[in-house]
Amino acid sequence: MRKHLLVLFGLMFVLVLAACSGGDSETSSESGEGNEETSEGTEESSASGEQEITITSKSEIPSMDPSLITDSVGFQWAGETYEGLYRLDENSQLVNGMAESSEVSEDGLTWTFNLRDAEWSNGDPVTADDFVYAWRRAVDPEVGSEYGPYFLGGIIKNATEISNGEASLEDLGATAVDDKTLEVELEKPVPYFESMTVFITFMPLNQEYVEEQGDKFATEAEYTISNGPFEMTEWSHGEGWSIEKSDSYWDKDTVQLETINAKVVKEVSTGVNLYESGEIDQTELNAEFVDQYRTDEAFNVVEKPYLYFFKFNQENNEALANVNVRKAISYAIDRQGLVDVILNDGSVPAEGYVPSNFVSMPDSEEDFREAQGPLVESNVEKAQEHWSKALEELGTDSVEIELLGDDTGTSKDALAYYKGQLEENLDGLTIKLMEVPFKERVRRDNNAEFEMEAATWGPDYVDPNTYLNMYLTDGQNNNMAYSSEEYDSLIEKANTEYAQDPAKRFETFLEAEKLLLEEDQAVAPIYQDAKAQLFRPSIKGVYSTATGPEFEFKWAYVEE
């Protein structure tokens, strides 16, 4: 995988449902797996002065419960307070977290993880039972986790049967051999399994603490628990929160930041004013401010393999069940104009559903996106051709579609642009904007309460499957009534028959992506994300990776 890593910092620019920090230079590296100690391989710091920073979030945290989190804000902050088997370092390499070492059986079906001595913030030891409990809870139908069945299903033995109520929790293929030995049985060989364990759903949970808190668990700072570098100490809903260095963390000597404050700031202009007055250390910039600050020492651009796209709910609007309507909408958007004028932050037009600079073809330096070629085009003439066919097929001369999106500044600007483009280029189309708080949009997406949605997706592990398996029939993240037997078959074949044949597996993914976009236009990719920001130059060592929490603070520090 090829990633661009800016040793700088930025935070929470989300239209996400939901997956480049603190320094001055950009580096690029091959992603892989490793078993080095977490504190190895990081830059030597020269911290001094007060180790406290204040950054922005565009949205409230919907939940701090690892079993229930589905959004990048929750991923970010739970990812700093919990630690799973591994973390990702500044080079996006897997380094040991709770796991000191691991072994895998010859057939690739059984993994054994040997855990280190570590403690929870309440003084309890972290044990293999904590992982077993958390993973069982994630697939327990009574808990109602969205990502538990999605991530563990078809991966961990019997996870799907348990989430469907067809097997007991004790049948899950996760066993505590003893306090320090976790044995995991897989349904099939999974090339990216270790990478998956960085995801928040795989974090351990202290059973006694969770059950003692009951429904209050993870709803306020006082009802949270930590085994990671930081613990939550304050949480003022809708306004912000604070996390502080954990004295119980096994690698606390590596952690230098004492406090990270997050302030919810929805409007870019507000963030800029707060930055200039010295009240915060980082803020997003939009097109209005980019040119003004482009030469400023604090100006940074963070590139991410995050895709922004339209979801079409074929069940909630008759018109969207028509493939020509969906194709017309995709063709009608001038993506270059959007990224150049409205965003002006380094974002680029999308060329497919799997982003560029994310993963390379097996045994090759060729990017997946380059191997496939562009599957997305802006073309008003083609848009109008498909629109004419659609209106004829629907037997009408007008269509109204509700477009759901976030109510923050940049998001609102993008939504207004989409409305203008679609209504100008497709005669008879009316777009009704539905701008809601991020938390509410996530809820509506989860419950399929939308017609068309401006959404985004970030990778959960380093593999095309993290994007392409979203649209399996009745899949956990489908939520839009798309169904294709041929598409289901291709994804299934890639992950079973070709699981240990990387070349054929990736060729099958290429075929599936073409079906998803060229034939069915199930979704409409719009642009690939980058964010311009102001970031206090004195803050170093905050890293960004494609998977896990969006930003990693374990190695961050303030240099005066």
Descriptive overview:
- With 560 residues, the chain is of the alpha+beta class.
- The chain has 17 helices and 24 strands.
- Strands 14, 15, 16, 17, 18, 19 and 20 form a seven-stranded mixed β-sheet that branches. A four-stranded mixed β-sheet has the order 4-13-12-11, covered by helices on one side.
- The protein starts with a strand and ends with a strand.
- Residues 1-44 have low confidence and may be disordered.
Most strands sheet: 7 strands, mixed
Total number of strands: 24
Residues in β-strands, percent: 15-25%
Shape: globular
Instruction: Show unreliable segments.
Output: 1-44
Average pLDDT? 89
Radius of gyration: 23 Å
Fraction of residues in H or I helices: 25-40%
Structural class: alpha+beta
Alpha-carbon distance between the termini?
Answer: 35 Å
Number of helices: 17
Structure summary:
It is built from 17 helices and 24 strands.
Spell out the key features of this protein.
560 residues; alpha+beta; seven-stranded mixed beta sheet; four-stranded mixed beta sheet; 17 helices; 24 strands; 28% helix; disordered N terminus
